[in-house]
Amino acid sequence: MTDKDLNGTVLDDFFAAARADMPEPSDAFLARALADAEAVQAGFQAAIPVSRAAPRGGFLSGLSAVFGGWAGLSGMATATIAGLWIGFAGADQLGTVAASYIGGTDTLGTVNLLPDGDFFALAAE
User: Fold this and answer.
1) If residue 13 lies in a helix (H) or strand (E), which one and from where to where?
2) Could you tell me if 108 and 98 are in contact, meaning their C-beta atoms sit under 8 angstroms apart?
3) 54 in Cβ contact with 62 (< 8 Å)
4) What is the spatial distance between Cα 63 and Cα 86, in angstroms, rounded to a whole number?
5) Is 67 exposed, middle or buried (0-12, 13-18, 19+ CB in 10 A)?
6) Which 8-state DSSP code applies to residue 69?
7) What is the pLDDT of residues 71-84, one digit of tens each?
8) Taking the model in full, what pTM does it have?
9) 51 in Cβ contact with 45 (< 8 Å)
10) HEC letters along the chain
């Protein structure tokens, strides 16, 4: 860029010239675009209706189809059981259970960022 273009005056002149000379689309172009849009919309209307029949095989097959198959259903069941376990055991017990599995202290995942001070006392200084 040159020194004359530091304030953007050259670009402003180009953009002003482009706004002043905006061509209008021709009537033939607009007619072709409208005909093309109507042809596409007619294709949407001719779609084959989807059958809403219930899946065969019973309740469990239908339930597994809703969740994306047996893999999705087993993932939902695992998350439900884990949620119930956390709800009954409480979040306080998760640290001790995790520490017993991987070997550690009861304060697993706890970090004291201000060991001997107070945040508000630091902010007041």
Assistant:
1) helix 9-20
2) yes
3) yes
4) 25
5) middle
6) S
7) 888 898 999 998 88
8) 0.31
9) no
10) CCHHHCCCHHHHHHHHHHHHCCCCCCHHHHHHHHHHHHHHHHHHHCCCCCCCCCCCCCHHHHHHHHCCCHHHHHHHHHHHHHHHHHHHHCHHHHHHHHHHHHCCCCCCCCCCCCCCCCHHHHHHC
Q: How far is CA 81 from CA 4, 74, 102, in A?
A: 70, 11, 21
Q: How many CA atoms lie within 13 A of 81 on its CB side?
A: 6
Q: Render pLDDT for 20-58 as a digit per residue (tens, 0 to 9).
A: 878 888 999 999 999 999 988 887 765 666 666 655 677
- Burial of 108 (C-beta count, 10 Å sphere; 0-12/13-18/19+): middle
Residue bearing tokens 């239908």: 62
